[in-house]
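Supplementary Methods, section 5.1.

A reviewer requested that the exact input to the structure prediction be made available. We therefore reproduce it here, unchanged from the version used in the analyses.
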Amino acid sequence: MDSGSSSEPRFAPVILAGGSGTRFWPRSRQARAKQVLALDGERTMIQKTLDRLRSLAQPEDVWVITNSLLNETITQQLPEVPRENILSEPAARNTAPACALAAFLLEPTSPETVIGVFPSDHVINNNERFVEVIRAGIELAASGEKIVVLGVPATRPETGYGYIEQGEMVREGSVPVRRVKRFTEKPNLERAKEFLAAGNFAWNGGIFLWTAMAPLLARIAAAHGTPEFDQVLAEVYPQCENISIDYAVLEPRSAKGEAKSEIYCLPADFAWNDIGCWGSLHEHLTAGTMQNKIDATDPVHCTIDAERNYVYAPGKVVALVGVSDLVVVDTGDCLLITARDRSQDVGKVVSELRKCGREGLV
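The structure derived from this sequence is encoded token-by-token as follows.
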């Protein structure tokens, strides 16, 4: 696609890649976090993110917001993206400042550009449908001061995701469009069951689209491309409030009411998965069959009366005897053993290691 053509709005994807991926410890570390790992193939998570955006935007229109620990690795993994488009946050400030920064860097020269915000560590199995939905979202976002969000069809009462309550259907068709009533952060189990039963709630997958015009972080944007940019970024960015785009923009705007907020929801029905922990990776790699999955370079392994286990142990012969529902990850310097249904708690290990002064292991 020629993103600069007169018939289509210019589209600038912003890939958020500053997370630390602590629930994938010990493979995920500060300097090689989840998004730069190849968890389900040869391409890393961030490389796959760029791959599926290629038919929507040119590499020079792609921006990456990361941190200083990952900047060099991401630069190496994404050689197509201009070096100056890969920015390091001087301090972790959640998604709102990162999105605003990208908007202001684009606004002076291309105020009508549609910005799309994409997490760098999600899995999408139907790329053709992904492109179709994003194209529809770009068109809608370019038609006025609209914010477009993507809602993942809820299939279970999940308490780990935020929810989008969908309202009036404003357009049917291959990519239906509905107004957004409100956003709800991670609910308890009882409320999650109510949302699922209601039928008009979707998971918030963290993908947003809107035009670049927004009055934030102007000083940083004004310095972009000058010798002072790094200094200004380091001085100003840490002063930003540590807040998500949900709290900073979407929730206040949705409070105007369904008819006035101009927030619209498109279906993220393209086999989305955020692969948030080792347990969900195991489910993804086994296509939901929950068989044993052994990720080891040595082809020899043995399982006896063992079921539903995930093992990562490169260079080792693996034998599983009489065990079920385990996650075992061996990185040489660290060994993780946990129950598969407790893998969401692995991030707590990182906190404990920091308390013990073992920063070299996180």
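The CA atoms of residues 307 and 324 lie 5 Å apart. These observations are discussed further in the main text.
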